[in-house]
Amino acid sequence: MSLRIVVCVKYVPDATGDRHFADDLTVDREDVDGLLSELDEYAVEQALQIADEADDAEITVLTVGPEDAKDALRKALSMGADKAVHVEDDDLHGTDVMGTSLVLAKAIEKTGYDLVICGMASTDGVMGVLPALLSERLGVPQVTLLSEVSVADGTVKGRRDGDTATEQLEASLPAVVSVTDQSGEARYPSFKGIMAAKKKPVEALDLDDLDLEAEQVGLEGAWTAVDSADERPARTAGTIVKDEGEGGKQLAEFLASQKFI
Amino acid sequence: MAEVLVYVDHLDGAVRKPTLELLTLARRVGEPVAVALGSGAEATAPALAEHGAVKVLTADAPEFADYLVVPKVDALQAAYDAVSPVAVLVPSSAEGKEIAARLAVRIGSGIITDAIDLEVGDEGPVATQSVFAAAYTTKSRVSKGTPVITVKPNSAAVEAAPAAGAVEALAVSFSEKATGTRVTSRTPRESTGRPELTEAAIVVSGGRGVNGAENFALIEALADSLGAAVGASRAAVDAGWYPHASQVGQTGKSVSPQLYIASGISGAIQHRAGMQTSKTIVAINKDAEAPIFDLVDYGVVGDLFEVVPQLTEEVTTRKG
After folding, report:
1. Same domain for B93 and B12?
2. DSSP H/E element including A203
3. Nearest CA in chain B to A226
4. B55, containing H or E segment
5. Is A233 on the interface with B (CB under 8 A)?
């Protein structure tokens, strides 16, 4: 039977751009270019490698986001994923991580899956909790923060490099996996891949399709509220000296004046 | 006074510093009830009591070590049900965030991660976060359910605040899902003898300018003279000069020490995201135009191979 892989991806504002907040304290998506979160490229890459090893596999990339989020899906399709699902609904504006995980879980169940693969975190919110939330909501094992992953005989195995130890993990499918940026360089889409992606199917789903109510998501339905977002004051200009042979000593003097020595 | 649940991060009974910092913040919200799980759980009690825990709920079972995350969620949920706290606070480690997230789903609560401060507002705890590579500071609160908040290391001072710290055994029955992910082997990371990167008061980092694995000895020598942790930029890690566990930046560790010394690091957004909230920032770089100099309190434009050894020697001399 075919191995059904769903890769969850996020369309994020470019981290090298000038990111800021809109008036309603959601992330402003108008004034900064968006793209496929870099950390999700690693998830797409591992999905492609796992599919290569399997006898028969199908990769669906899934995103929740506005119209422009299609760009992220196209990128993943051009890397080699087979099809895409785009959950888009005006009522989703302002949805927080609890709501997003609810929507993704519904869409994953509707799509059908043996393996869900996520990046380790998004490059905008950087919470890193979505894979665990999906695992909890779907009721399947989490095998997360892997720097190595393999799938064989209905079992996923991987290496998790934690703060205090390196662990080898394994779980039976279906399961939710997340991979780190140490899992292996993501491939660049080939010209052929980019052309092929244009013909790959992108299924559009809205809240109705997922049997969700507007009240369960969006800014009003969010489980958290942002009360203020203030630009960090620019750091006051520091002292900069050119090393004329005494730079190390001058620096030591500064550290001593600040009581670090 | 209302009780607040504090999840304890410990290694065989030795409480890690971020948990003690968390107790400082927890005491603003209510009476801290600590939850310590796994091998050595009971041994955590004296340190927790010393820093304000009124109660220490403990549980030990092979499941905590043999299976990933979920057994700990089951236990934290048992503690939640027993205590009915006003908030649940968890250290922002990778595992801590996963535990907190799963608990939040189960108890129907919102979650805030990586808070750097916590205060009490009219509608419950208000969390300060630093977002978009520290370009913004936000204040947020959980608006549904009992707030579940994870807090980053170095967000508060460790304060002595002796309390009863009475140890109570926590009854835990594991869910069917607890044994879903097997930990088939565990290799503790080799200790460098230096402070933990995210917890250190001083961090000395090297980047592309260090130009080779062997040259990191210079960075390590400076770190050791200051009692600091060693960090590395993504460029240095990708080049294979230093282990990924030491990477500071968006895809590595986020640090917020009292003093951050960047050597041979240009200061790309990817790096700034992981260190911009450091209290005092110092940089050494050959390129006077490097963006890192926009952040510094003190910068030296010069060759790190000249400046760093001189600094190390001067620090060592002054410390006598």
Report:
1. yes
2. strand A202-205
3. B140
4. strand B55-59
5. no
Is B140 contained in some domain? yes
For the entire predicted model, the pTM comes to 0.95
* Residue A202 contacts B, CB cutoff 8 Å: no
Confirm whether B189 is domain-assigned. no
The neighbouring-strand residues paired with B284 are B263, B300
What is the Cα–Cα distance from B219 to B242, expressed in whole angstroms?
11
Which domain CATH number covers B60? Answer: 3.40.50.620
* Distance of alpha carbon A101 from alpha carbon A75, whole angstroms: 22
Task: Give the domain extent around B10.
Answer: 3-179
For A3-221, CATH number? 3.40.50.620
Query: What is the rounded distance in angstroms from the CA atom of residue B274 to the CA atom of residue B256?
Result: 8
Judge if B46 and B165 occupy the same domain: yes
Residue B195 lies in a domain: no
Q: How far apart are CA B53 and CA B35, in angstroms?
A: 10
What is this model's ipTM? 0.96
Regarding whether B60 and B120 lie in a shared domain, the answer is yes
Tens digits of pLDDT across chain A (261 residues): 699 999 999 999 998 888 989 999 998 888 889 999 999 999 999 999 999 999 899 999 999 999 999 999 999 999 999 999 999 999 999 999 999 999 999 999 999 999 999 999 999 999 999 999 999 999 999 999 999 999 999 999 999 998 889 999 999 999 999 999 999 999 999 999 999 999 999 999 999 999 999 999 999 999 999 999 999 888 888 999 999 999 999 999 999 999 999
Contact state of B105 with A136 under an 8 Å Cβ cutoff: yes
Chain A residues 73-112 with a CB less than 8 Å from chain B: 96-98, 101
Chain B residues near residue A249 by CB distance under 8 angstroms: 310-311, 314
What is the layout of strands, in order, in the sheet containing B166-169?
B111-115, B148-151, B87-91, B3-7, B31-37, B55-59, B166-169
With an 8 Å Cβ cutoff, are A20 and B282 in contact?
Answer: no
Can you name the residues that pair with A169 across neighbouring β-strands? A158, B183
10 Å CB burial of residue B288 (0-12, 13-18, 19+) is exposed
SS3 call for B308: helix
Do the beta carbons of residue A128 and residue B113 sit within 8 Å?
yes
Strand partners, B57: B35, B168
Number of domains in chain B: 2
